[in-house]
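Appendix C reproduces, verbatim, an entry submitted by the partner laboratory led by Prof. M.T., so that reviewers can inspect both the input and the predicted structure.
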Amino acid sequence: MAKPKTPKKPLQPALPEQNLQAAQQRELPLFDGFFSADKNESRTFEIFDALPKYVYAKVRKAKDLTPITKTITLRRRNESGKQEELQVQVTLSAAVIKGQDGTGQAIYPGAREELVERAIRKLAVQQVVNTGLHTVPQSGAQIIRVSFTLYQLRKELTSQGHGFKVVELKEALEVLNKATVNLACSKDRTLHGISSAVFSNYTYVYDEDDDSGQSSKVSVDYHPLATQAIINLAFYPINYQRVMSMASPLARWLATRLSHRFRQATKTAFVDGGSYQISLETILSESGIARASRLRDNVATVREALAQMVKENMLHGMRPFQEDLTYASTKGRKKVTDVVWQLFPSRQFAQEIIQGNVEMNQWRNKHQTPKKVLGTSGLETGMLRLS
């Protein structure tokens, strides 16, 4: 008679409960603003959601271990209260995991991992899974830990039209834990930075015979910048269901960016010209899509993404966007060098933004959290700060 299979050992040891202050394992008042009773609602995080954490390519296996480096622009207020831009270098290192053939392979987080992270965040916002704030006594660091079963995660993704097998979810979580996102910026000839996985302290109890995921339990800690965004109330509501219904990863990226950064949207934007402007160069620099040999192919990808945003009523049906192309003179067909799009939100999408502003202002006033943390959380005088 064959011996029954035993669950695999945890990938990393969980922090012992005695190392977490029980008094800090509580739902703080700010969590009232983070949680939501609206089943279609999730949250966008300041800074964290601006990071190019995913690679949107058909082949995600890395040819070598050379990391991908991009430079993004973050806006913040300086000490005098004036708006300024900060250049931050973001380096994404691939996760090295064991493939199905038993050999090691390097994989970048991609669309699958993005969907998994979005689903876990939504489950936390909806209080479907256990979400708690902890303080580690030795360092004083605050962490937000989310615990769930693979069944809960799989059920949520399937409900949004993204079906994955249990084995695929296991691999996605491993990639999110092992791939590293490094941020660095310089100030006065000094380099400041932070390096962390999307999910750290990944612990699990897996039963190899559990195809449904019901008895497979997982616990992960949020990225420090995501944790800080929650603690500082540096987040906004977003219509999760509409974002998840779009097949294009770029459409989801654009929708998230528009929702978080265009908080001054109005319901008459398509009439009075109030638009959100973004260039092709910015999209290529800060999103996960690769630069094609012909920029016309990238332009087509963006147009497809915008079409999905129109279909989901995020952009106005009559006037969704204005497109301005820049060409270089050539002997043959004109060569596209850049494109600038002006995006016009739909009335419904604008109303959601307006309502979200009202709700978040109420929470910040209630908890006396200054609005200036938005755009500066984790960044001060050019430094990345986690306190």
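The first helix runs from residue 30 to 34. Additional entries are available on request from the coordinating office.
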